[in-house]
Amino acid sequence: IGRSFNEAIQKACQSLENKALGLGIYSEKEYKAEELIEYIKIPKWDRIFKIKEALMRGVTVKTVCQATRIDKWFINQLNNLCLLEKEIAQYTIETLPINLLKDAKKDGFGDAQLAKILQGQCTEDQVYEKRKAAGITRVYKMVDTCSAEFEAKTPYFYSSFEG
Predict the structure, then answer these.
(1) Is 110 part of a structural domain of the chain?
(2) How many CA atoms lie within 13 A of 30 on its CB side?
(3) pLDDT tens sequence across 9-49
(4) CA 142 from chain center: how many Å?
(5) Contacts of 61 (CB under 8 A, 6+ apart)
């Protein structure tokens, strides 16, 4: 659960029992764009990660939509995450602007994921300390299980970052 699709998809990917750090697995193998386009044509458990990898390698949203038959809105959301990741990768932990860190956290990037994107030049703890010092902390939101028709007897909560 998240405040946006991007946050929710990142949190969902983080919860998988694989090496995923959010939407990025950051595989060791280098795939060519053509290989990725062929791979994503068939639904598989890891297709979303390969779609992200294709977008990171410059495959267009249109090409991904044609190959997967997934609606353009969803692919655009994944592409926005890729663009944000590319922007973050230009910085070190010391030079990473606070507003960019806030945007990353709102879009569901985990501290470990950000440390990896920053080319391993920092640790998860350093990302945590930077965001803590900037006042970027979790908030907890209640899930409205009753659609505001009446008060829920057993509400539950999820965490999110709002800066």
Answers:
(1) yes
(2) 2
(3) 999 998 888 878 888 766 667 889 999 999 999 999 999 99
(4) 22
(5) 55, 72, 75, 76, 79
Q: What is the pTM of this model?
A: 0.89
Q: Are 33 and 64 in contact (CB under 8 A)?
A: no
Is position 141 within any domain?
no
CA-closest candidate to residue 59, choices 77, 47, 42, 75: 75
63 within 8 A of 37, measured Cβ to Cβ: yes
Enclosing domain of residue 20: 5-136
Taking 70 as the threshold, does the pLDDT of residue 103 lie above it?
Answer: yes
Cβ contact 72:89 at 8 Å: no
Write down the pLDDT at residue 27: 66
Pick the closest to residue 23 from 62, 65, 53 (CA basis). 53
- Is pLDDT above 60 for 163? no
